[in-house]
Amino acid sequence: xxxxxxxxxxxxxxxxxxxxxxxxxxxxxxxxxxxxxxxxxxxxxxxxxxxxxxxx
Length: 56
Fold this sequence. Notes:
two-stranded parallel sheet, flat, alpha+beta, 14% strand, 3 helices
């Protein structure tokens, strides 16, 4: 495997997503290709829009 994710990094992103959802966000845009490798849809109930897939 060429990349490794840290549990603390994933937890930080999930915390940010949860905070945004608590403020009314219905979805989050994953505007960097690496975020999609870190946070999966199964990790959150907030819809994630992965720009890597959108652009492809």
